[in-house]
Design brief:
alpha/beta; Rossmann fold; Alpha-Beta Plaits; 2 domains; six-stranded mixed sheet; four-stranded antiparallel sheet; nucleotide-binding; transport; P-loop_NTPase; ATP-binding
């Protein structure tokens, strides 16, 4: 079952520009210069129940605009959107009962009252029964370790404490679909680890579908098997993260640490292999090929020279994404 169905979705914004000088200002009174900018440009997307999908791209790629259309905040210029079987804009009151949203830059908690009072207000808004609230929120509060924070005003919480409470607030009604827009922005490593662990457990226990947008690609690597890559409002990749890592960057690096100094003459030379010296005992081979080519090279090197250590250097997802964008800009 698909919880998100998007077809040919588009969102245009009109950008006005002012003419210079007094005469230009006078002309602007009657006619304005403008151009139409497409923040989201004819995208189609579907997300199955229980999936955790990373929605990534550079600033201005259209990620937040897409999220706002999927949650009913913005109306699409064209195309169709179905989320949890509903039109987010036309069936808004019924629809918001089925989603949770966390915007890293915005708060849904009341600033001057205790966290638990905000929770009680949201419980009334979503019409959650006492039994459901106690059962589900007991688990959320314990797992996110926010029990000691419940009687504190939101304004007295640190950023990490507030974001854990924001996440709990979005889950008061136990929604089947959770939208996270930069939920870990500005947080320290320990808080990020807690949030990632909680989201994994939530997905496993309740089959909660998660659509995550973030600039922190370690969040994506830790949580999402599937990624959707957006560039200038268009989807340029939609598939498994592992496939993106395997196929998007040519060449693999193998670092050899020998027991004694080795010269380049002592190393095997193939057309698909280039060598770089790190120090007398350490050489790095860049292999233009798959795992079989890497395996053949390692076997040949080990037969020729005593080895202290061999390490295959994984290319980071961040490097992969950077390369994709650079190639896209070069061809555009």
């Amino acid at each position: 079952m698909n919880v998100i169905e998007v077809s040919n979705l588009r969102k245009d914004f009109i950008s006005y520009s002012s003419r210079s000088g007094l005469s230009g200002a006078f002309r602007d009174l009657f006619t304005r210069n403008y151009k139409v900018l497409s923040a989201v440009d004819d995208i189609s997307l579907s997300v199955k129940q229980g999936e955790m999908v990373g929605y990534i791209g550079e600033n201005g790629a259209g990620k937040s605009t897409t999220i706002k259309m999927l949650t009913g905040i913005l109306t699409p210029t064209s195309g169709t959107v179905r989320v949890n079987g509903m039109d987010p804009h036309k069936q808004r009151e019924q629809f918001v009962q089925t989603i949770g949203v966390v915007f890293g830059q915005r708060s849904q908690l009341w600033w001057d009252i205790a966290v638990q009072e905000s929770f009680r207000l949201l419980k009334k808004v979503y019409r959650v029964s006492d039994a459901d609230y106690n059962d589900h929120m007991g688990y959320v509060i314990e797992t996110l370790e926010i029990g000691p924070l419940l009687d504190k005003p939101v304004r007295k919480l640190s950023l990490g404490q507030r974001m854990r409470c924001e996440l709990a607030a979005a889950l008061i009604h136990n929604p089947p679909l959770l939208f996270l827009d930069e939920p870990t922005i500005g947080l320290d490593v320990l808080v990020k680890l807690k949030i990632r662990k909680f989201l994994k457990e939530l997905n496993e226990q309740y089959k909660t579908t998660v659509l995550l947008t973030t600039h922190d690609l370690t969040d994506i690597e830790a949580l999402c098997e599937r990624v959707v890559l957006l560039d200038e409002g268009k989807i340029v990749y939609d598939g498994k993260l592992a496939s993106l890592q395997e196929n998007s960057v040519e060449g693999k690096q193998v670092e050899f640490q020998f027991l004694a100094n080795v010269t380049e003459v002592q190393l095997p030379h193939r057309r698909e292999v280039s060598w770089e010296k790190k120090d007398g005992q350490t050489w790095i081979a860049t292999v233009d090929g798959d795992e079989r080519a890497v395996s053949r090279l390692i076997s040949e090197v080990v037969q020729r020279n005593p080895i202290k250590n061999v390490r295959i250097n994984e290319i980071s997802t961040e490097e992969i994404i950077r390369k994709i964008y650079e190639e896209g800009m070069a061809t555009s």
